[in-house]
């Protein structure tokens, strides 16, 4: 699986999601806070994000300005022929070690990365096997570019643009730990974070674009999808309870709203896909 969306400007629904493939995301222009797991990245043009897809993520953009990004989705399996060559470097290490990571490219580095992306797009537009092969080779070059810039470990602590973003980061970090707690509520968040419920609700929606419990429920449903994929033997009721839902009907309703099918149907689809793949 390999998919290049070059300089995409299309509208999108800002929802938290995950996927089983990896992602390279490059931010060309706009205003965007990118939430990945328990991290908030305030993006600037030239920022490149590596994503280990199973982590819940979502961009929160300012719709009043153009939002331009290039996204590559890929299955690491397509790189196997390149990773078995003599003297090859471990170009997947940044994804495997960091899981999710931002590179802030400026000046000549930014120009070089954009040239690589543009060349990949030109090969893609050929629409034939030669173009497809050269696009993939261009992507391998991109991964070498990334690997070269990830050799030095992170040495600086992340800085937040404001106290408000720091507070939202604290909320997300707590939710990452407690999202399966069936007693999770605004009162408990208020007690643990020492901020009022109304203030927490206001700044979270302002920074992320969603409510606190929309985030929680989307994370629970996303985790349910992962559990169904990795542990097909688990019953829907068991997964529901593990993820903090007191009532199966509530879980089923939210799952269908977000995924489009009931959890039972989703499990059946996964079973059919596994049978077809054999």
From TrEMBL:
Record carries keyword Transcription: yes
Keywords tagged on the record: DNA-binding, Transcription, Transcription regulation
SUPFAM superfamilies per UniProt: Homeodomain-like, Regulatory protein AraC
Family annotation (InterPro entries): AraC-bd, Homeodomain-like_sf, HTH-like, HTH_AraC, RmlC-like_jellyroll, Tscrpt_reg_AraC-type_HTH
Transmembrane parts of this sequence: none
Keyword Transcription: yes
Alphabetized PANTHER family for the sequence: ARAC-FAMILY TRANSCRIPTIONAL REGULATOR, HTH-TYPE TRANSCRIPTIONAL ACTIVATOR RHAS
Protein name stated in the entry: AraC family transcriptional regulator
Lineage summary: Bacteria, Bacillati, Bacillota, Bacilli, Bacillales
């Amino acid at each position: 699986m390999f998919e290049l969306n070059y300089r995409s400007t299309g509208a999108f629904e800002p929802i938290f999601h995950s996927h089983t493939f990896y992602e390279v995301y490059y931010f060309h222009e706009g205003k965007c806070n990118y939430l990945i797991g328990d991290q908030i990245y305030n993006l600037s043009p030239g920022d490149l994000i590596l994503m280990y897809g199973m982590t819940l993520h979502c961009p929160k953009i300012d719709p009043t300005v153009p939002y331009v990004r290039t996204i590559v989705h890929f299955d690491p399996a397509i790189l196997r022929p390149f990773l078995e060559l003599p003297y090859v470097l471990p170009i997947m290490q940044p994804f495997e070690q960091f899981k999710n990571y931002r590179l802030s490219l400026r000046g000549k580095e930014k120009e070089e990365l954009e040239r690589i992306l543009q060349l990949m797009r030109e090969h893609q537009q050929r629409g034939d096997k030669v173009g497809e092969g050269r696009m993939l080779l261009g992507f391998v070059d991109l991964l070498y570019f990334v690997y070269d810039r990830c050799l030095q470990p992170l040495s600086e602590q992340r800085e937040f643009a404001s106290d408000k973003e720091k507070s939202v980061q604290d909320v997300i970090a707590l939710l990452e730990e407690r999202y399966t707690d069936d007693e999770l509520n605004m009162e408990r968040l208020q007690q643990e974070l020492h901020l009022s419920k109304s203030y927490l609700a206001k700044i979270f929606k302002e920074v992320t674009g969603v409510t606190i419990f929309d985030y929680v429920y989307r994370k629970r449903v996303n985790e349910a999808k992962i559990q169904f994929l990795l542990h097909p033997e688990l019953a829907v009721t068991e997964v529901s309870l593990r993820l903090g839902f007191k009532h199966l009907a509530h879980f089923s309703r939210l799952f269908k709203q977000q995924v489009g099918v009931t959890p039972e149907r989703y499990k059946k689809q996964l079973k059919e896909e596994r049978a077809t793949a054999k």
